[in-house]
Design a protein that fits this description.
Distance between the termini: 22 Å
Strand content: 15-25%
Number of domains: 1
Number of helices: 3
Largest sheet: 2 strands, antiparallel
Shape: globular
CATH superfamily: Glutaredoxin
CATH topology: Glutaredoxin
Oligomer: single chain
Helix content: 25-40%
Order of helices and strands: HHEEH
Length: about 70
């Protein structure tokens, strides 16, 4: 459900931010390192420091506003 929204945001904000998607079934060690307990979970990092986190699906507009408010 969120995949097309995240892909669209990545295209729109190309050059401004980097979007990385991790399959937690394939990489459970990464999920553990980032304390991911639910899918989807979105984490915004800046210079290696977590700036924001949210879990759960959301509408494209809400997701774009959330990213803009923390990125």
């Amino acid at each position: 459900m969120m995949h097309p929204i995240v892909e669209a945001l990545a295209r729109r904000r190309s050059g401004e931010l980097m979007v990385i998607q991790v399959n937690t079934d394939i990489y459970p060690d990464i999920a553990s390192a980032f304390r991911i307990q639910g899918v989807p979970t979105f984490v915004v990092l800046h210079k290696g420091t977590e700036r924001a986190r949210t879990s759960g699906a959301m509408a494209e507009t809400d997701f774009s506003f959330w990213v803009a408010s923390v990125a």
